[in-house]
């Protein structure tokens, strides 16, 4: 972004809301989401924005359609975690996009189903927190994933149950340190 204020960017190829997104290698990735406000049409579509090319590029669709998944980049891959099918409670599906091979693969499922969770990578682990199982409301849950061992681990729960949350990696900084970083207008 140059100058002050918002700058227009190219629109997505597929209109959606409740999608997973992440930045990976200078590109923005978006996958899944809902195509309608009645939450009846979950999407498998995935797209990538390469700023140098000036527009969104369609990617192969994910194997699983889902709305409100969590997304994060880790180790050169885009992880799309769980979400909701068009009907029924959340599920535990985890799929990984590999930009080098332009393909999706399944990863170890979450230990329990979650939709509307948050996800972020930190170090060599993927963290997923909060969300909703689609049956009992917002969750306190937090899991971490080790892609080398292909194993999920239960982490200490959050003090407050949260659904529809987003997470980011502060790259080792505290919230106060991030707030003190001058804007680059």
* CATH topology name: Neuraminidase
- What is the CA–CA distance across the termini? 8 Å
The structural class is mainly beta
Rounded Rg? 16 Å
- Global geometry: globular
Strands of the biggest beta sheet: in what spatial order?
Answer: 1-2-3-4
Q: What name goes with the CATH superfamily?
A: Kelch-type beta propeller
Q: What is the total domain count?
A: 1
User: How are helices and strands ordered from N to C?
Assistant: EEEEEEEEEEEEH
Mean pLDDT: 88
Q: Please bin the fraction of helical residues.
A: under 10%
Sheet with most strands: 4 strands, antiparallel
Kindly state the number of beta strands.
Answer: 12
Beta percentage is 25-35%
Number of H- or I-type helical stretches: 1
As residue ranges, the low-confidence spans are none
CATH level 1 class label:
Mainly Beta
The CATH architecture: 6 Propeller
Could you characterize what this model shows?
The protein has 185 residues and is an all-beta fold. It has a single domain (20-169), classed as Neuraminidase. The protein is 3% helix and 34% strand. It is built from one helix and twelve strands, in the order E-E-E-E-E-E-E-E-E-E-E-E-H. It has one helix spanning 175-179; strands at 20-24, 27-31, 46-50, 55-59, 70-74, 77-83, 91-98, 103-106, 118-122, 125-129, 142-146, 151-154. It has a four-stranded antiparallel sheet, with no helix packed on it. A hairpin with a 7-residue loop joins strand 6 and strand 7 (91-98). It is globular. The mean pLDDT is 88.
